[in-house]
Amino acid sequence: MNGLPGPLADRSRTAREDAAEAIASEGTGEDVWSAWAGWRSWPEPVLPDGPVVVLAAHPDDEVLGFGGTAARLASSGREVHVVTVTDGEASHPGSRLMPPPVLARRRREELSEALDLLGVNRRRRHRLGLPDTEVGKHETALAQWVGELLRTSGATLCVTPWSGDLHADHEAVGRAGHAAAGAGAIALWQYPVWMWHWAVPEGPRVPWHRCRRLPLAPAELALKKSALRRFRTQIAPLADHPDVILPPEELAHHQRSFETVIVETGPR
Question: Cα separation of 156 and 142, whole Å?
């Protein structure tokens, strides 16, 4: 998860303005989501057998959206590949203490610590190093690369950020994953990240009928919470950059006893 998103590809000017306003707003509190009965009726999706490929636009997206489930899969011996598309070097623009090359290295280190905790095999971690905030410019090449990984790994499930998340990089990665999974007839699930901030229960932008719950055992949730604490550059301010990317009210959306996916293709 990175800060405010860049311009959204393939959207009207009005939609881009709406998106920027929604992201910049105070956001929907976790107390509102907790009081909503809607998600209690979401079924649990069937996890297909075989390897799973998880895509993330920035280091931490994969843990925010799918970390607990990834831990469960890894602990059961399932082959889990994690693809981190950018290094998240643009999350603190203007910082002299942590300019982009330094921040990129730090965020890679944080992700490595987090994935170690979740039990993801280091040989199945893939760093692409595409430019942060500019993933859309590389979408076609990204889809081809992901398609090749899906093929060579024998993956039966591809998990990506949601292509409606109102963040340009998240959406581009979601579209690229959709194209790659579709070409290989592979099941595709997408996890929301920013959605919990800008959406409201029953809001019209979200395909609620395709949302599914992935329950987390207490040990899995504990691992996820511990992994999220490794992203120190995102959960605490820098001395010269007081804005916190993941303040407690945002983290609360991603520390529930379940994770949410939007089923695009595959068993529903």
Answer: 19
